[in-house]
Here is the input.
Amino acid sequence: MKYIIAIFATLSLLNAQSQSTADILIKNGKIIDGTGNSWYYGDVAILHDTIAAVGNLNDWQAAKTIDASGLMVAPGFIDVHTHIENDEVKNPFASNFIMDGVTTIVTGNCGLSETDLKKYFSMIDSLHVAVNVASLIGHNNVRRVVMGNESRDPSDSELTQMELLVKQAMLDGAVGISTGLIYTPGTYSKTPEVTALVKIAAAYNGVYATHMRDEGDSVTQAITEALDIAKAANIPLEISHFKVSGQQNWGRSSETLNMVKTARAEGIDVTIDQYPYTASSTSLNTLLPDWVLTGTADSIKQKLQDETIRKQCTDYMVGKLKKRKLKHFSYAVVASYKADSTLNGKSIEEINAIWKRKHNASSEATTIMDMAINGGAGMIFHGMSEKDMQYIMQ
Here is the structure.
């Protein structure tokens, strides 16, 4: 045993001597190494784009030395919830991520992804994107390829086709599967369908990330569904942008968070992520009832021009607004409206006034439908409590 220790000690010494010169030496930083341990003072040596050594490196020399006194030194951050659709083409340098210290991103969240991931990863490689890119396979896109936007259960053969698409995506390098059960066509799917597809991802050591079916009045039922799916598939679960939405639900974060804590105590590998603000960002169409969003874009526009359907949509939206204990759609703010960019930054209530319509919820619902007919809009919804957001973060 003594001889073995001596041999290893000699090898370590020779290795240290051979590695005493680096390209870059980061000195005197507070090192957070990602293990969960407390930070410690130390140095980091980088050689050929690789971390060569960490610790007390006073004997090391380098072509470039960075004094990190008073600063934190950490590995690149991993952003597990991104939507980079086409941004990799527009900005392959990924400056928005790199400048925040993010070196690895996971796209394909909320049920939205490329379905041919082999082709997608090849494109990423050809662009020389500055960050590492991982992707989930999105349930919504898989369902749309097989079933379109139809509101019904899949046939046995359709479910088999979806399972094969998920399997191929996992073989091509997907890290798991995601759902966006608040968006079409995912909202039309039922728990058994989702469970069957998640089981495919589980067979290839994937994870299940979900934008749950509801984050408002039925949030506890949505959490239960997500946990049941994860348990049935025996797969790690990530609940995306964990929140309680809608003024009528403020204060329920203790209830929802306890569900996660209980599940973890029972052995379910469930984690959550959140954003550190009280607004969410999604499509204008989420204000409309699910049933009106079936079919093609043209058929949706046609439905929204039918007076009977418009009345039904108005009743639905005004009813949802009253549940929020609000009189106007002031909480819904336009982020991007291609039909008229001058309306960006304006609330639905403000746009309704600009269009010189009556100052009531019914008229604002009409404005929402007219905007949907004209191409829809990206929206910011101010619907969460600061106290809930802080409680979840703590």
